[in-house]
Amino acid sequence: MRIVKEVNPFLALCILTLGTSAQADSSTHNGEGTFYGYGGGGNCSFETVPDNILTAAMNATDYAGSATCGGVIVVTSIDTGLSVTVRIDDQCPECAEGDVDLDQEAFAQIDDTTKGRIPISWTYIANPVAGNMKLYFKEGSSQWWTAVQVRDHLYPISALEYRITGSSDTYTQLPREPYNYFVATSGFGVGPYDFRITDFWGQTVEVGGISLVLNTEIDTGTQFSEVSGGGSSSSSSSSSSSSSSSSSSSSSSSSSSSSSSSGGTTGDAQTSIRTDSSWDTGYCATVTVTNPNSTALSWTVELDIGATITSAWNVEWSQAGTLLRASGVSWNATLDAGASTEFGFCGSYEL
User: Fold this and answer.
1) Domain of 179: which CATH number?
2) Is the overall model pTM greater than 0.70, yes or no?
């Protein structure tokens, strides 16, 4: 299998003009969070519920004709400050723009389910459990009618193109259906096939010699690269230095420096770090910041995270080497006496 990875700015510009293509998005979205009992088989046509990540349904506007399927977002309850990482597996047709309908277990991790509806913010991050990308041919596919799906991608997919392996043909871009398959109504013809896959950052991966095999996830042996700053809610700077050291332990506590801004007082904030997921080249974690003082505190903390930030949420941050300097955003910058807030990040050992 031949594999080529590249970033093609011209191609990225072209595909982002298509109506149902996912567009690069590092902004923070706001809306309302609800929950439902998801059991697999949603609009994104993933047959089973993943056992390594929670799921959610995206509102129809942001679903964009299945463009967000398989993308991963971090959803934060504005009321509690708690966050949860979910993969988009379904569409919520009745939800307003910005809304996310969470699986009940995901909702319960950030707020009380008796509320039913809560204010939220959310942002895209790299899929922390992606592994290699997979291709999956839909049941009924043949050389005369062919539908294929991309799975386990790091970021949302913007375009899928194909050609016959060994031919001199240029790639043909496939239209994407609302049920998250790329379809050639007249078929691909006799294979095997080459594919060019593009994510919403404009990164492209080419894989060759793929045979049409049904009922099998075909491992492409490759993946997009993590984009520094991709999915960050706000960042003032980032470092490209790399580190191979381990992340913080799953539960640790320390006292971190804090500086005063408008409102609050100067004092020490306490932090604890929980590793939410990890893999060979990085990890994602949640940091809890607590004000132990008897007066309000505007906090800034410094933590050695042993990695380079690739995305962060609910925090203003900068990084020098592996040292993360973090402070609150508008709604969590000042903590009342005894109060806590959370922010999260994902980091890479390879950047």
Assistant:
1) 2.60.40.760
2) no
